[in-house]
Amino acid sequence: MRNPWAQSGNYRTRYEQDVTIFATYREIVSVVLLLVALCLLPLLLERSQVLVLNFIFIYAIAVLGLNITTGYAGLISVGQAAFVGVGAYTAALTAPYLPFWLTVPMGGLVAAGFGWIVGLPSLRVKHLYLALATLAFQEIFVWSVGRIPALAQGAAIPVEMRDFLGYEINFRNHNFFWYYVILWVLVLMVIAWRNLLRGKYGRALIAVRDNDRAAAALGMDPGRTTLLPFALGAFHGGIAGGLLAYFQRAVVIEEFTLAKSVTFLAMAIVGGLGTVVGSLLGPAFIEYLRLWMERLSEAIKNNPSVQQVIPAGVDLASALLPLAFGLVIVLFLIFEPRGLYNWWRLIRSYFRTWPFKY
After folding, report:
1. pLDDT digits (tens, 9 = 90+) for 248-262
2. Does the model's pTM come out above 0.85?
3. Chain-centre distance of CA 352, in angstroms?
4. Most exposed among 1, 117, 198, 217, judged by the fewest C-beta atoms under 10 Å?
5. Exposed (0-12), middle (13-18) or buried (19+): which is 213, by Cβ within 10 Å?
6. DSSP letter at 310?
7. Measured on CA atoms in the order 192, 197, 198, 199, is the torsion positive or negative?
8. Spatial CB neighbours of 300, under 8 Å, sequence gap ≥ 6
């Protein structure tokens, strides 16, 4: 008889059982406990720590979209920050007239439209040439925002929301309020991500990615299957951009440059391409790495003995962050190309089969 609490065999006899999200009751309980822990976590943290978690959750939504485009469809995109910017500026322009629960989805839809347009070259070109097309959109976005008066030519555009359903949002509770909003948006996006990509559309993405001619021979439409990942990835980026605009209470072009797109791609690689867990672990790892390097840089600047050892004219503190950033990406590509998700998979496999070895 099948044990619903332990995965000791494959007892699935119907397709409906094969596409279930959770294999055992233990997985359901673990997810519920994780959500409860995340809801209680802000009660134990300071405002600055909640601030970091908010950025991690927002970046996780953007990386989820990038994992659809690059992780599942195999289409290299270096313009995810531009899609995040489209969502942010859409929210900023519509915030004075609409509530945030309409402006944020609207930003996602507008970004999805741009993603569909950017994906059109994928019907003709692939690999490096497609990456250059997304790079071109990234640069066009930054250039356009810097020259459009309606977008303040790249300067800060304020985005204010002082209350929600009678609940006053002020300086003290701003981080905590948006923590729960961003968390539950992330949960909804993860559920939609899993349900979409484990069905026939996700299988079609993998088939077209592996061999588009064989997929076309099986009755799939490679063109439509290639365009939709760009639209869906951009939609996730637009949602993340809308949340970022409200959370930061302003939109500025420096948040959506090429460097940020490379950062999103690094988060996806470090976390694990094409995985939900990797989309969460990658942003957390890169964001905390940035904080640790900033603290180390401050320690170097404030230590006279270390400054005497460093040659004159060398700013070691400023070089630490890009050095660590590049080194981490190279090490993961060489030694762990499947990212942090593989470590999570090994740990989960150990506890799932314990006390047995396999």
Report:
1. 988 999 889 888 998
2. yes
3. 28
4. 1
5. exposed
6. S
7. positive
8. 306, 307, 316, 317, 320
Task: Name the CA dihedral angle for 255, 111, 194, 206, rounded to a multiple of 10 degrees.
Answer: -100
- Residue 350 identity: Y
Per-residue pLDDT tens over the stretch 294-352: 888 777 777 777 666 666 666 666 677 788 888 888 888 888 888 898 888 888 877 77
DSSP conformation letters of 109-138: HHHHHHHHHHTGGGGT--HHHHHHHHHHHH
Instruction: For residue 116, give every residue at least 6 positions away whose Cβ sits within 8 Å of its Cβ, in sequence order, or none.
Output: 227, 230, 231, 234
Angle subtended by helix axes 222-248 and 80-94, to nearest 10: 50
What token pair was written down for 277?
């867990």
DSSP code of 255? G
Query: Strand runs (DSSP E) across the chain, as ranges?
Result: 157-158, 163-164, 167-168, 250-251
Count the residues in the chain.
358
Could you give the CA distance from residue 267 to residue 49 in angstroms, rounded to a whole number? 20
Tally of CB atoms within 10 A around 220: 18
Taking the chain, what is the end-to-end CA distance rounded to the nearest angstrom?
19
C-alpha distances (whole Å) from 11 to each of 17, 188, 349 are: 9, 29, 19
Rounded CA separation 58/244 (Å): 7
**What does the pLDDT look like over 210-241, one tens digit per residue?**
777 777 777 777 777 778 888 999 999 999 99
Distance CA 358, CA 356 (A): 6
